[in-house]
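Dear colleague,

Thank you for sharing your sequence with our group. We've completed the structure prediction you requested, and as agreed, I am returning the results in plain text so they can be pasted directly into your records. Please verify that the sequence below matches your submission; if there's any discrepancy, let me know and we will rerun it promptly.
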Amino acid sequence: MVKGVLDRIVDQQKAVILVESLGKEFIIDLAQLPKASNEGTWFTINLDGSTIQDLKIDHEQTAKSKQSISKKMQQLRATKTNSRFKRRER
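Please find the predicted structure tokens below.
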């Protein structure tokens, strides 16, 4: 079993799943995804060679990832400052 993340959906027909531990991406039909899947959803994946046999949503990893992204965005917004560059006078 490996973990992968739904990276993107292409043409409303194909889903691209990235598996970082293997350094691979898998392209599957959108119909093979669990119903509640969105971009950024993490899965526990059973592989048979280079074919995905089973996908299950990893709710815990998905929540951790969303929380981490939210925290980073808050930090970016909090540290946003004015530019050090001055505008030219016309």
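Summary note from our side: Helices lie at 59-78.

Kind regards,
the structure core
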